[in-house]
Amino acid sequence: MNDTVDKLVIFLAKRDGIDKLVKTFQYVSKLVNWQVETTHPDLANRFKQWEASSGLSRKAFRTGRFLTGFNGLRRNPGATPAFKFLAVLANAGEMVYFFFDHFLWLSRIGTLDAKLAKRMSFVSAFGESFGYIFFIVSDLIVMKQGVEAERKLMALQEEEENSKDAKEKIRKIRGDRVMRLMAVAANVADLIIAAAEIEPNPFCNHPLSLGISGLVSAWAGWYRNWPS
Q1: Total count of domains within the chain
Q2: Cβ density class 26-63: b for 16+ within 10 Å, e for less
């Protein structure tokens, strides 16, 4: 129990940890609002306000986060040129997303002209979608390479029964695969949410689709950021 509490404290001390918690509040309140909208209008309105305030607080908390894109570009200095190119595209899209998200937040709280909100929302969502596509592609390529490497290691393990080194490498590959699967799930979910802003449509804009996508993204991020 104490170990879980300690991990929760560490998790909530991170900016991403707080973001995933508030994102959970945001999309749970969206689903509750949709569910009780016709039967309990007053309650639905309260959850609608909770959703809106959660969304705005997340935007405020992400101030300056577009600069983390530079860190993302420096993480894998030994990456191949193809992966560096994918990383540039992915992080550039994410930086556009977070940068214009500042103006969206300011326009929604009334600091800037409210008329800018729609335009800033489109640009931010477009950059977000652009970045997520390349993040997804990168993760899928790495997972494919991991599967191939794991097969070779398993064949080596069969030849050398006590190959501890092979077992450890297989364990790391599988652990990395789980984390990348969580990243792909989160990015696909966020891509659906962004698509709802770029090109409104019955599927992406439905409260159930948005709510489930938001929770998938939040909980996948929660899993990835939870202390080991």
Answers
A1: 1
A2: bbbbbbbbbbbeeeeeeebeebbebbeebbebbbeebe
CA distance 210 to 74: 33
CA 30 to chain centre: 18
From residue 110, alpha-carbon distances to 56, 107, 116 in Å are: 12, 5, 10
Q: Which of 42, 47, 30 is nearest to 196 (CA)?
A: 30
This prediction's pTM: 0.90
Rounded to whole angstroms, how far apart are CA atoms 91 and 134?
A: 9
Question: What is the distance of C-alpha 31 from the center of its chain?
Answer: 19
Report pLDDT for 161: 60
Range of the domain at 19: 2-225
pLDDT tens by residue, 105-115: 999 999 999 99
How far apart, in whole angstroms, are the C-alpha atoms of residue 132 and residue 113? 29
- Rounded to whole angstroms, the Cα distance separating 94 from 84 reads 15
For residues 188 and 4, the answer to whether their CB atoms sit within 8 Å is no
Percent of the chain with pLDDT over 90: 70
pLDDT tens column, 35-46: 999 999 999 999
